[in-house]
Write a structure and sequence with these properties.
Blueprint (H helix, E strand, L loop, with lengths): L7 E6 L1 H8 L6 E2 L3 E5 L7 H7 L5 E11 L3 E5 L11 E6 L7 H11 L4 E14 L5 E2 L3
Antiparallel strand pairs: 1-3, 1-7, 2-6, 4-5, 4-7, 5-6, 7-8
């Protein structure tokens, strides 16, 4: 079995895009960092090979809505090339709430029509974000 890769592929937002999202933050802990493309990678698997060849590529992401509750806040980006059911960028979370909560938030918001329309374009670069910090954005 192939070795587990230390990290995940993501579109890491440029500073201007991250700042535009930060201006919307409603919770104490502000994230506005990335959109996950694929996680739980194995070295050399199809996802690893595909995304490794696209490292450093700049993508435009089109936000169509925003969801929030007392625990978290995320923007919804349905056309992003993500393996996630509801592609998104976590904007902010309440103290003690991990950013992964955005997956649950969007799942509930989509089934309950609780996404407010928001039309925004963001730019970011495809990177391998390493667990524990650091990123690689070049081939």
């Amino acid at each position: 079995m192939a070795k587990r890769k230390n990290g995940y592929y993501a579109v890491v937002l440029n500073e201007e895009s991250a700042n535009r999202l930060r201006a919307l933050a409603v919770h104490e802990i502000v994230h506005c960092h990335h959109l996950t493309l694929v996680s739980k990678l194995r070295v050399g698997d199809n996802d690893d090979v595909y995304w490794s060849h696209r490292l450093g590529e700049v993508l435009e992401l089109r936000v169509v809505g925003i969801a929030m509750d007392d625990k978290g806040q995320a923007v919804y980006i349905p056309e992003a090339p993500s393996a996630k059911k509801f592609p998104h960028v976590t904007v902010s979370c309440a103290e003690g709430v991990p950013p992964v909560y955005s997956n649950e938030l969007l799942e509930r918001a989509m089934t309950g029509s609780a996404i407010e329309p928001l039309d925004m374009k963001l730019l970011g670069t495809i990177c391998l974000v390493r667990h524990g910090g650091g990123k690689s954005g070049s081939k």
